[in-house]
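Posting here for the record, re: zinc ion.
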Amino acid sequence: MTPQRKIILEEIANTNTHPSADEIYELVRRRLPRISLGTVYRNLEVLCECGLIRKMDLGDGHWRFDGNAESHYHVRCTSCGRITDLYMEELCDFENIIRQQTGYEGVGHRLDFYGLCPVCKREREIPHRTDLPSSRPGAAGESEGM
Ligand SMILES: [Zn+2]
Ligand SMILES: [Zn+2]
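Prediction output follows.
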């Protein structure tokens, strides 16, 4: 563990915002002004490989990094993009069923939730409507096909 890697790990552990590599770079640069983005990327990869952090793609076009390496679910705000950890049981039986039915080994799954976070909800409740007479959130029918 190099001193640089230790600082990167500390910065990720100190946040629960699930930052992107660029955001981590900004955080780390406060403590290591001369570090390069490439170094941050490389160290993030190593930390993921060691299982000390987790890398995830929540469909917003960025890899995001999680200092909580335990397997857990997330809910993402469809308005501001904030990502919040969920504390609930993993669907383990689900994976056993897949293994039994198909013979697949090393079965994993990805299940992402989305919704409107309390901050955005409050903002929407403040009545400053200029247009948008009757737009219902969630009515867009954005179903994710395979
Ligand atoms: Zn939000
Ligand atoms: Zn998380």
